[in-house]
Amino acid sequence: MAQQLCLQSSIASFVPEVVAEILAGKLQLQVSFEQSTYVKTTSGETIEGAHAVARYLCRLVPTSTLYGTNDLEKAEVDNWLDRSLSSDFTTDGALKNLDAILAPRTYLVGYDVTLADLAVFAALKTENGSLKSYPNISRWFNFCASLNSLKAVLKRHPQDEAQPRIKQADVGKFVDLPGAEMGKVVTRFPPEASGYLHIGHAKAALLNQYYQQLFKGKLIMRFDDTNPDKEKVHFEEVIREDIALLEIKPDHFSFTSDFFDNFLEYADKLIQKGLAYCDDTPADQMKKDRENRVESKNRINSVETNMALWKEMKCGTEKGITYCLRAKIDMQCDNGCMRDPTLYRSKLEPHPRTGDKYKVYPTYDFACPIVDSIEGVTHALRTTEYHDRDDQYFWILDKLELRKPYIYEYSRLNLQNTMLSKRKLTWFVDNGIVTGWEDPRFPTVRGVLRRGMTVAGLKQFIASQGSSKSVVTMEWDKIWACNRKVIDPIAPRYTALEKDCIVPLTLEGAEVVCKTIPKHPKNPEVGEKQVWLGPKVFLEGADAELLQVGELVTLINWGNVVIKKINRDNEERVTSLEGSVESGNTDFKNTLKLTWLADVPNVVLTPAVCVQFDHIISKGVLKPDEDFKDFVNYDSMSTQEMLGDPALKDLKKGNVIQLQRRGFFICDQPYSPPSVHSFKETPCTLFLIPDGHTKAMPTSGGKRRKSTDPLLEIQQPAKKQRGPSAIPEEETDKKEEVPSGKSSTAVPTKASEEAVSVPPTQGEATTQTPTPSKAEVETLEKEIKEQGDKIRQLKSSGAEKSVVDAEVAILVGLKTKLKGLTGEEAAPAKKGKEVGGAKGKEEGAKAKEGGGGKAKQKPPQEKQPSSGKQEGAKKTEEKKGAAKVEQEQGKKEEEDQAKKEEAKKVTRLGLEVTKEENTSEWYSQVITKAEMIEYYDVSGCYILRPWAFAIWERIQAFFDAEIRKLGVENAYFPMFVSRAALEKEKTHIADFAPEVAWVTRSGSTELAEPIAIRPTSETVMYPTFARWVQSHRDLPIKINQWCNVVRWEFKHPQPFLRTREFLWQEGHTAYEKKADAEKEVMVILDLYRRVYEELLAIPVVPGKKTEKEKFAGGDYTTTIEAFISASGRGIQGATSHHLGQNFSKMFNIQFEVPGKEGEHEFAYQNSWGLTTRSIGVMTMVHGDNTGLILPPPVASVQVVVIPCGIKASMTEKEKAAVLDACQAFVEQLCAAEIRCRGDMRDNYSPGWKFNHWELKGVPLRVEIGPNDVKNSQFVAIPRDTGEKISVGNDVAVARVKELLAEMYKRLFNKAKQELDSHIVITENWDELYTKLDHKNLILAPYCGECEDIIKKKTTRDEPSEPGAPAMGAKALCIPFKQPKDITPGMLCVRPDCNKAAKYYTLFGRSY
After folding, report:
1. Structure confidence at residue 677 (pLDDT)
2. CB of 94 within 8 A of CB of 123?
3. What share of the chain is helix, strand, coil (3-state, %, to 5)?
């Protein structure tokens, strides 16, 4: 029977149509063309969506290679299918990446055409005309287009011509809804009217609207008013207004209370079916019972009894109000939401809409699925936090026989330093921490709008998030950066000065004039404003401190002024200035730009108050066990009195403006003239609008020029906390806001004199420069122009980066030569790469200063808009022409730099999640980005890269040397085990059976008997031991092997921690006497302790495993247990087993008893093992949010040496001096047996290297710059503290060894403190359960028998960390060091166990 395949007559169905074409001879398909793409299977089911249909068709033909030939290829195909749907797939950056990927390939995946090729081809089809600049894509695209199957499909759709590519909007990925049909989709937004909408609600509402509009469906706005306690009419009105503000127009408004009668009928139905019962268990006790899976005594009540009690509830009788109605589902279910949840509760409070008609009210979880079904909702969009409730949602619909909507999950919006819980936000309001729900510090829709967020900016941010399921906690910078894109082009520019810090400037030759200027330098449509000029103006005090006599400065929107006199008080502070207007001088390039206000009679400046808000929660991400009240920022608002433009009087509430050189502001309260009652005027109140770059209110004053503040150079325009001396980014037109280098030599401030000592020739150029000949200048300018053209040509042709960089260096040299010739300052544009982290940026900037640590720093160079604008001003006409050429060239270079910056943002060099917010994802990123692990195409197996394997080699070297001292010899046994040998010890194989991998085939031939791959080697080695041992003289046997084993884990593979194949050492020994064997068990265990504590700096708890947890087939097992504080889980470090005579009896390892001829005894055996899991434990324990931290004893590179401060302007001799010093230092440390490496690569900036080696965890970084070479010193930075320590070369080796030893101690002590502080001793079950959920290990008295019950009772309803399975507490070990003695009568910690406790046992969740 043919399957029905429906396709769209457009490129939208290209992929499944080509698949159908290729598989035409192998499938029976009835193809038709309609408005959507789907396939109807022979069973009548419908599969929708182009890619889903294509996958389905491929699976119908197992021999087809379209979906890949193995699991790895299938995964790659899926990846390309997803990427082809991405909104940014055809951006320049993505196409460049694709071009590089296709360089060595004919096909995207494997060696034949796959769905990946088809999907990407379809995505690029409309890009055909713009692919010429990507040679590899063009080659691949033309090859695909020549394939017969593709040609046939393309021929059927001639209307799909290639169109010019348009710029993609900044939108996230919106996933197609399952089962969605055009015109039939119904979504709903169901807020509870118990507070104001916050931006998390805004995301939900906009997401529902997106799908409603996409499928031309219907959007229902439903108020969830099931709880009369919380429901308030006021909030309903507010929410309606907020929805209108967001420009959302629901098709229908409804209330859950509209269906109260329906709910009562459905409740009756469940009771009558025996699926619900009335329960009077107190709420607190019910919560405990559900956690402990204890059934209520009322669960067995008859239907008649429940109906009678239900009637009492509905009538609100004294007895009825003590009951609730619960569903009867499964109290033993691992999903806590299915443990008899509450459906109805008794409440006597009147309802805002129904009054006192009802005495019982349904829970949201009961009402929601019913109303969704009744109202015709087709797709219920819910955040992932509701995932566990989905089973309950569908159970209710199943039992009531109601239609089921689709549930689509998306991630909730999580923001740092923010509470989105209505309960917690209400606490802030009720306690007066904020002024109300509209407070600008609140994440409510009204709060962010009042702070300056625009609806367009908010919608753009929500759109950029898409409908992803990835749960991340974002910084606020992203949302404010979206808003900035909206307000920057339309915000009028004004001026305001700090009221208490203004300095008067008297101008000779100035007259009182009023002129009209644009409010926005780039957008005339914003309008115009009047600016007054006059003989007396006010400047910022910080600006005035920078000026000096004879200096030429520019007053923005006026012109140039020469400073003639500076008056100071006794403390050398500037009190006033005198100058003259240079109306004929229009050279504004190399002057300091100043904001100002004229003091004109009868023109009153506008008083204003600038307000800046900080986060009301001081910590970015709170841990589950942290109380938000402990992190409340009670000082989250600061104000500053200002004097502003007279035009500020005209601002209206809600107007967004930009104060030049200060940032964006929104008018919260307009200016009001003096009141007739109080005779006081009301200043204009302006709220600072964050712009995604700064986190603190910009200070007064302009940008510092060179030699003023050596800290300026490390200031980056990235999101970074600014100190009191930080200078804000300016937002006005570059000609107004960016001061170029000045032509006069500045007098350094006192602070800068202390930090900087730079001769004039190395700092700023003086005004008295020699006049070069015209011919020399013109020749150099021509060479610069030609070199610039050459660089542009190289870039457009896609030349190698190294070639372009070499030519850029030549260009910089020419510019430097020109500046030296003309006397202007030489400040070439910086093109070094920046590191994608704040720390790297700061240190990268420090590296550019040319020295380390406490060495003197070169004064920072002022930020320029482009390299062209850094050229000196030419005072002759021909120089102006040359400057124009330079400006154009600079503009091009600026654009290139901007592209590099954009590319930098997506390099993803550093970690993208924190250890606290998602430990599992953090761990995955650390081990991959630190180059420890490479993923492999067999799930659960991984490639150990050299960086990780070197750690294993260090462990191996230590342990191997120690066991040799004990007489242990290394050997190697085969990895294959016969079934007969493996099954000889039944208990042993029973424990390993689920994990054993079997070889069943040789080529295409089935083996006569399957062969196992060793999960451990007892059954491999012991038959050999039996042949080796005949007499007591053959004992002891002490064998160790370094090998791999395979255990086919299916639980939750994690590299190093739980893998299907891992490396280990396994020791196997046989003794004549039991005492000797047991002594060795403890000796080996102590060696394992030393590995963890002395090499890996990880404290451990030695102990004995319980009977259930001991090695299968052994007498007992000893263990060392480590602790991962980030996840609150224990992990087994290594084990040493005493096997007794169990295995020797099975394998007949016996010896003749000395002195008793013919009498034999069985040997006593041990086995012990340590695995590469130790590397994962080390990573988990010591790693931080920057990356790996390696303890010095196991680091393959203990010290990395990085040259800093090498610049293009330095001579080759100067560069060589720094590099030679670095190389000499490396050799010196290596000679002292310190593992050291120098990073001399010239294609990465120092800042990039800092981040790279920090990510890889190198214990100590050494920086050497020109100043360090001169001062015979270096700067050392330990990885764990980041502290910069200057060290003299004369004590280099000794000090480096000290620093490494100190770091080891710090790591161990920190881990020891974490372990000790997270071990809780208790005899109380409730405390055990509570403390366990707070990421602790528990020492509790234990009978030794009820471990499974304890584990089951402590199993959580949700995973203990993202991506990991839910689990209960298991017995980790019985510590050798008991916390206290077991007293007579002490019982097991489990409350319903009446057995006597035997010992304190360490319980905890584990890996």
Report:
1. 65
2. no
3. 40, 20, 40
Q: CA–CA separation, 1191 vs 1260, rounded Å?
A: 10
Average pLDDT value for residue range 1157-1177 = 93
Catalytic residue among 290, 382, 389, 422: 422
Residue 884: partners with Cβ closer than 8 Å, 6 or more residues away:
none
Indicate if the pLDDT at residue 1268 is higher than 90: yes
Q: What are the CA-CA distances from residue 1113 to residues 980, 981, 997 (Å)?
A: 17, 14, 20
- State the amino acid at position 639 in one-letter form: T
Nearest to 603 by CA among 513, 711, 702: 513
Query: Six-digit token pair at 1264?
Result: 């050497």
Q: In what order do the strands lie in the sheet with 496-498?
A: 493-494, 656-659, 663-669, 684-689, 606-613, 637-644, 496-498
CA gap 684, 651 in Å, rounded: 8
Look up tokens 């060099």; give the residue. Answer: 909
Q: Is 422 a catalytic residue?
A: yes
Q: Please classify residue 464 by burial: count the beta carbons closer than 10 Å to its beta carbon, then call 0-12 exposed, 13-18 middle and 19+ buried.
A: middle
Classified as helix, coil or strand, 551 is coil
What is the pairing mode between strands 502-508 and 536-540? antiparallel
Is the pTM here over 0.70, yes or no?
Answer: no
* Distance from C-alpha of 896 to C-alpha of 829, rounded to nearest angstrom: 12
DSSP state of 993: G
Q: Give the integer Cα–Cα distance in Å for 217 and 91.
A: 31
**First-to-last CA distance in the chain?**
50
Residue 112, classed as helix, strand or coil, is coil
The helix/strand/coil state of 222 is: strand
Kindly compute the dihedral angle of the four CA atoms of residues 1261, 1267, 1270, 1272, in this order, to the nearest 10 degrees. -30
In this predicted structure, the answer to whether residue 1360 has a pLDDT above a threshold of 70 is no
On whether the CB atoms of residues 597 and 534 are closer than 8 A, the answer is no
User: Does residue 847 surpass a pLDDT of 70?
Assistant: no
Q: Which of 192, 551, 713, 1072 is catalytic?
A: 192
Q: What is the pLDDT of residues 168-191, one digit of tens each?
A: 444 444 556 677 788 889 999 988
Task: Determine the pLDDT at residue 305.
Answer: 95
DSSP for 228-294 reads TTT--HHHHHHHHHHHHHTT---SEEEEGGGGHHHHHHHHHHHHHTTSEEEE---HHHHHHHHHHTP
The strand pairing partners of 1061, in sequence order, are 1046
d(C-alpha 658, C-alpha 582), whole Å: 28
Share of the chain above pLDDT 70, in %: 81
CA angle 605, 606, 611 (to 5 degrees): 135
Closest CA to 1089 of 1134, 1041, 1038, 1040: 1134
Cβ(594)–Cβ(503) under 8 Å? Answer: no
Contacts of 1114 (CB under 8 A, 6+ apart): 1137, 1138, 1139, 1140, 1142, 1167
Q: Which residues pair with 496 in a beta bridge?
A: 644
- Residue 374's CB is within 10 A of a number of other CB atoms, namely 14
Is residue 412 annotated as part of the catalytic site, yes or no?
yes
Q: How far is CA 218 from the centre of its chain?
A: 35
What are 1298's two structure tokens?
């000290």
Catalytic pick among 232, 359, 412, 1073: 412
What does the block give as tokens for 674?
């003096």
Residue among 885, 1016, 907, 986 nearest 1245 (CA): 907
Strand segments, DSSP code E, in 1-122 are 3-8, 29-34, 38-40, 46-48
The reported pLDDT for the residue numbered 829 is 36
Q: Are 1021 and 973 in contact (CB under 8 A)?
A: yes
Q: Cβ(1307)–Cβ(1190) under 8 Å?
A: no
* Longest CA span, the chain: 127
Give the tokens for residue 320: 């009825």
Per-residue pLDDT reduced to its tens digit, 480-525? 888 898 999 999 999 999 998 899 999 998 889 999 999 998 888 8
Q: Count the Cβ atoms, other than its own, within 10 Å of residue 164.
A: 8
